[in-house]
Design goal:
Strand content of chain A: 15-25%
Number of strands of chain B: 11
Largest sheet of chain B: 9 strands, mixed
CATH superfamily of chain B: HUPs
CATH architecture of the largest domain in chain A: Up-down Bundle
Strand content of chain B: 15-25%
CATH class of chain B: Alpha Beta
Pfam family, one (chain B): ETF
Number of strands of chain A: 11
Order of helices and strands of chain B: EEEHEHEHEHEEEEHEH
Largest sheet of chain A: 4 strands, antiparallel
Shape of chain A: globular
GO cellular component, one term (chain B): cytosol
Distance between the termini of chain B: 43 Å
CATH topology of chain B: Rossmann fold
Structural class of chain A: alpha+beta
Subunit structure (chain B): Heterodimer of an alpha and a beta subunit.
GO molecular function (chain B): electron transfer activity
Mean pLDDT of chain A: 95
Protein name (chain B): Electron transfer flavoprotein subunit beta
Number of domains of chain B: 1
Radius of gyration of chain A: 22 Å
CATH topology of the largest domain in chain A: Butyryl-CoA Dehydrogenase, subunit A, domain 3
Strand order of the largest sheet of chain A: 4-5-9-8
Order of helices and strands of chain A: HHHEEHHHEEEEEEEHEEHHHH
Shape of chain B: globular
CATH class of the largest domain in chain A: Mainly Alpha
CATH architecture of chain B: 3-Layer(aba) Sandwich
Helix content of chain B: 25-40%
Number of helices of chain B: 6
Number of domains of chain A: 3
Oligomer: heterodimer
Distance between the termini of chain A: 60 Å
Structural class of chain B: alpha/beta
Mean pLDDT of chain B: 91
Strand order of the largest sheet of chain B: 9-8-7-10-6-1-4-5-11
Number of helices of chain A: 11
Low-confidence stretches of chain A: 1-7
Radius of gyration of chain B: 21 Å
């Protein structure tokens, strides 16, 4: 009987001065943030609470992009925030990460907009563009007056982008671009597209501005995920580009993959924001919902779900913060980004699905954020490297065996 | 035109505060934030200097952690911060607070001193007027809107019976109500730049305050007690007349 007694004994009381951190951050991982990073977190959190949450469910339901939020995120300096110069804020990688987490606690679509603008469109111009290209595009993109998109994926070249069919061939002083790109976030609202195309020297990046003859876009409809985000197809029909449109600084798949590495980094943080929002909704709901004449938070099954979710959040946050520290110290390896993207998106989607069950039927309505996050995370699971591809990247790093070829 | 804005760091109003039974002081071990009421003051100051030139200095008295609140105001756009932290000032009453703030304000170049109408933790609501008294300048309180022309400040002042329009000659102490403006978010660039801005950390001696705080505090909290529970409200059952009874009730209380 002694063991039964000990089994029901609760944990020994801690000293009276100890305060347990919030349930969504039980290890107080946020204490690792610097003063600046904490202020970034609080600022983005307040903006999301006041400007995003009141409207986002309606945009999701209507499948419309919240154009008015572009000025909000640009006003805060969130576009290209981790780049330096050219009107960018120059935050730490951890600062960028925590901002992604807070944005995605609002909606994965909004975080995707910011990721694509900063990490996929501004980053390659910043890293591989000419001085003239940087001066022309980056300050306007940071200010949100120019929106960018990133064209790599094609209908028949997803996980294996090296097989792209889009090509650019030299023509006189410039290039002629032909082909099409698929699943392009921000495509039809973009003022410029950073497009990757095969050339006889290898893959090159090109800045294609809206209105260039032969460049058209069409939106992908009937999505049941990332509905508050624009997803498009880009078409290039003998698009003539001057030499000044080509990014001079990189040739080969290293170019686009380095961009993806930047964006995936933000996703590893961001997904936890969506997970946290679902967890908090589930905690709140479980404490107010009564069934069998008691709060459902009293049920052991509910508590087990919440305990597992809280543990996943702690683990994901530790991974994200360590990832950020590695990036800030210049030691980040792409395999580490794969690990974090894979682990944290999976954690978030599991949390969302578990939260859905705690909310019962209410979990499937847009009155609560859970089903919105859950559906969004279905996209996050497979974009920017599917879970399977990241698994194989890890597998290759561990075994030395390349399962791709 | 130079503006001093008085700010305070307070326990996050979104999480319930607690009093420490041994010290009778508010516990400050949870999340602390720039008093939401002070954000209106910082915004009002920034709008004044954006229109008329000059700069905003924020002044705060409080523990070391109060730096976070000062930094937020700097990130919003204030040019300089002053934080007075000293163990002897722990548990200061309103008059001590006003003396310390007034002493720090005197060292600044200012035309307008802006405060909230009251803090969101202590709620004494008397510090702005005390500062004005100590500085011997007019206090314009509960401003809903404010404008400056030359050396004349005009404010619309919310009262129970209506709105008063008040004029005063600079320098003045101005307390602003919540909703006087829409406080801006600090920008990321502002956050990154805040660390480079000047920050003064004077002690009481630097402000020639030999005899404030501690034993010289005039007011003491002798005991704290839980507020009495609210009496249960009246539940009106709808038997066809509920709307009328509710209207009568509200009219009786002079709410409508």
């Amino acid at each position: 009987m002694a063991c039964f007694n000990s089994a029901v004994t609760t944990a020994q009381s801690p000293p009276a001065t100890l305060r347990l951190p919030a349930a969504s951050d039980l290890y107080a991982v946020d204490d690792l943030l610097s003063d600046d990073e904490r202020l970034i977190r609080d600022t983005v959190r307040a903006m999301v609470r006041e400007r995003v949450l009141p409207v986002i469910a309606d945009h999701f339901e209507a499948a419309t992009f919240p154009h008015q939020l572009v000025a909000e995120v640009a006003g805060l300096g969130l576009l290209g925030m981790h780049l330096t110069g050219y009107g960018c804020a120059g935050t730490s990688a951890v600062g960028y990460g925590i901002a992604c987490e807070e944005l995605e606690a609002g909606d994965s679509g909004l975080r995707s907009f910011v990721s694509v603008q900063g990490s996929l469109a501004m980053f390659p111009i910043h890293a591989y563009g000419s001085e003239e290209q940087k001066q022309k595009f980056l300050p306007e993109m940071a200010a949100g007056s120019m929106i960018g998109c990133f064209g790599l994926t094609e209908a028949d070249a997803g996980s294996d982008p090296g097989r792209m069919r889009t090509s650019a061939r030299r023509a006189g002083e410039g290039w002629v671009l032909n082909g099409s790109k698929m699943w392009i976030t921000n495509g039809s609202i973009a003022d410029l597209a950073v497009v990757w195309a095969a050339t006889e020297d290898g893959v090159r990046g090109f800045i294609v501005e809206r209105g260039t003859p032969g460049f058209t876009t069409s939106d992908i409809h009937r999505k049941l995920s990332l509905r508050a985000s624009v997803t498009s197809e880009l078409h290039f029909d003998s698009v003539y580009l001057p030499e000044t449109a080509a990014l001079p600084g990189v040739t080969g798949m290293r170019g686009p993959l380095s961009c993806l590495n930047e964006a995936r980094y933000g996703i590893a943080w961001g997904a936890l924001g969506a997970g946290r929002a679902c967890f908090e909704a589930a905690v709140e709901y479980s404490s107010t919902r009564r069934m069998f004449d008691r709060s459902i938070a009293r049920f052991q099954l509910t508590q087990a779900k919440l305990a597992t979710m809280a543990t996943s959040l702690v683990q994901g946050r530790l991974v994200a913060h360590r990832l950020g520290t590695l990036k800030d110290s210049g030691r980040l390896h792409p395999v580490q980004v794969s690990l974090a993207k894979r682990a944290n998106v999976r954690a978030a989607i599991d949390i969302a699905r578990e939260a859905r069950t705690i909310l019962g039927a209410n979990g499937i309505t847009l009155e609560y954020p859970v089903i919105r996050h859950m559906n969004n995370l279905e996209s996050v699971l497979t974009y920017e490297g599917t879970e399977e591809v990241h698994t194989l990247i890890l597998g290759k790093a561990i075994t030395g065996e390349d399962a791709f070829s | 035109m130079n503006v001093v804005v008085c700010i305070k760091q307070v326990p996050d109003p979104n999480s319930p505060g607690q009093l420490d039974p041994s010290t009778h002081l508010l516990k400050r071990d949870g999340e602390l934030v720039l008093d939401p009421g002070d954000e209106f003051g910082v915004e009002a100051g920034l709008q004044l200097v954006e229109k008329h030139g000059g700069q905003v200095t924020v002044v705060s008295m409080g523990p070391e952690r109060g730096l976070d609140a000062v930094r937020k105001a700097l990130a919003m756009g204030a040019a300089k911060g002053v934080l007075i932290s000293d163990d002897s000032l722990r548990g200061s009453d309103a008059l001590t607070t006003a003396k310390v703030l007034a002493a720090a304000i005197r060292k600044q170049d200012f035309d307008v001193v802006i405060t909230a109408t009251e803090s969101t933790d202590g709620y004494t609501g008397v510090v702005p007027q005390m500062i004005a008294g100590l500085l011997d300048i007019p206090a314009v309180t509960f401003a809903k809107s404010v404008s400056v022309e030359g050396d004349k400040l005009t404010a619309q002042r919310q009262t129970e019976t209506g709105i008063e329009v008040v004029e005063a000659t600079l320098p003045v102490v101005l307390s602003v109500t919540a909703g006087v403006n829409e406080p801006r978010y600090p920008s990321l660039k502002g956050i990154m730049g805040a660390k480079q801005k000047p920050l003064d950390r004077p002690g009481p001696a630097d402000l020639n305050l030999e005899d404030v705080g501690g034993a010289s505090t005039g007011q003491r909290i002798t005991a704290i007690d839980s507020a009495p529970e609210r009496a249960a409200g009246e539940i009106i059952k709808d038997e066809g007349e509920a709307a009328k009874r509710i209207v009568d009730f509200l009219a009786d209380k002079k709410v409508i």
